[in-house]
Design brief:
The protein has 512 residues and is of the alpha/beta class. It has 17 helices and 25 strands. The strands form six sheets. Strands 21-20-19-22-18-17-25 form a seven-stranded mixed sheet, with helices on both faces. It has a six-stranded parallel sheet with strand order 9-10-8-11-12-13, with helices on both faces.
Length: 512
Amino acid sequence: MRIAMHGPPLCRITAPGVLEMASDVGKVTADSRRVEPRDLFVALPGQHTHGIRFVGEAIRRGAAGVVLPEDAPVPAGVERWIRTSQPRLLYAHLAHAAYGHPSRQLKVVAVTGTNGKTTTVEWAAQLLNRAGIKARTIGTLTPYAETRGLTTPVAEDVARLMHRAAAEGAAVVLVEASSHALVQHRLAGVQLSLAAVTSLGRDHLDFHRRLAAYWAAKRRLVKQPLSAWFLAPREGVLLPSSQEPPWTGFAAHVCTRLVRFGPQGQVRIRPLGLSLQGLQAEVEIQSLKRRLRLPLLSDTALPSLEAAVALTWMLGVEPRQLMALLPHLDPVPGREEWYLVPGGPWVVVDYAHNPQALEHLLAGIRRLLPKSRLTTVFGGRGHRDRGKLPLMGEVASRYAQRVVVTTDSPYDEDPYELAQAILSRAPFGEWIEDRQSAILSAVWRSRAGDVVVVTGRGHETDQYGPKGRLNTGSDGEWLLSVLGARRYRPRQGSTVPRWKAWTLPARLGEGQ
């Protein structure tokens, strides 16, 4: 990374990949609206505009200086500046230096993968906290105000959240690392202890264009970089135990301790029996083996649980303690949440938003309730890879008796056009534009024992349309408040509530 400075130095490079802020500089930001006196403004290229357009505003707000791409002209009136060949990379390092490098006080774990990131980090944090190791997470479930809706926040927000975690006495921070974030160096400047990859499938080709480029972005997290400025795990890497491509290529790039999870790994969970009382499984951690009843209603999330257990073990929790904790796990918000409508069907709410995740979810439900009629409710998001939508329609048609396509954050795109991409491979599917009406229609036309699967939004409470962000509440919240559904969690000795089944004509006759 090439760096040139002008005026009194804004930072000082103390070693390759290590820098310190000048004492008269405050925080670092790439958002001119956040600039306060003495801050350093970073002018980054964006999707629709370039940060250099806002240098004047940053200076008027009292910015101490500006970071610019090396080929950008220096705007008039800027006396202290840095020009660099890697503005995003330098931005991340400066952001962490401004907070005193908080990751040096923590064990930081980064988890990437097409599916399973959120479930893995949240379950790992549960296990760590219950084992007496204070852990925090940064990712999809972090409040919108802290991340601006990004799975992996921008570098200045990552640094601020890690600084807060360290100040609160946390020992471990687990971060979801999206492929966008890895390409854009949002985690650069972090002293990374462990890295994990949960799964690989198709997603985000609107950004990466090619599947090979998407997987290469994921591989950045585990490989040994050529320069100290780039992110690198210091203490270990966790991968699935598969010996097939592309996992062999991932393993070949690992230059630190390698731990595997899955059928041939050091941590593995083998399902033995599945019922509405939970999943009976054989759990093996290194050489310790136990039979446990896990509070899960399918085996879909087992790879995420294996990864969470493996990470917790790598961080020092003993296998015997982990075995005692596993039966008491709580579900992850918006991930395979089960609800029971009084007298009506089961409703499963999940975040699945790509073909692989949807197929795993529906196949798991089929194994649990093979005789139930299945209805899926989901939509296509705007500004995303449209190529996956027909594949999702095909998956839904293969497993479900009824497919209802609805709206899911179209942004400024036509939701009907997005729906048609799904319906092109779901010949018996139907389109109901309003999401809550679509869920209601699916529930009303289902009977007790049937299953309605609502996917795409999970825990999310906001939808994004042409008029911006609209708070509609999450799908689960709506089921609880409007349909009177009850959350169902399998526990030892738990029983399924029984209600007298209602019929659609009876409900309609009551004016409901």
